[in-house]
Amino acid sequence: xxxxxxxxxxxADDPETTLRIARVxxxxxxxxxxxxxxxxxxxxMELERIRVTGEAYAKxxxxxxxxRDRVVVLDRR
Length: 77
Fold this sequence. Notes:
Number of strands: 0
C-alpha cells in the first residue's frame, strides 16, 4: 500500500493507480475506503471518456472543414 500511496502522490489523477489502491483496500477488508477509491476511479474514467470523445470530435470537425474547403476550391476549377 505504501508504494501505491507514493505513486498516487506522483500521479494524482492516474486511474490505474486509483484502481490498484481500491483493490488493495478491498482485499484488506477496508470497504469504505475501497468504495471511495472505486468511485474515484469511475469518475476519472468518465472524465477520460469525455476528453477522448472531445478530441475525436475535434479531429473529425477539422477533417470535415478541410474536405469542404477542398470541395469549394476544386469546384471552382
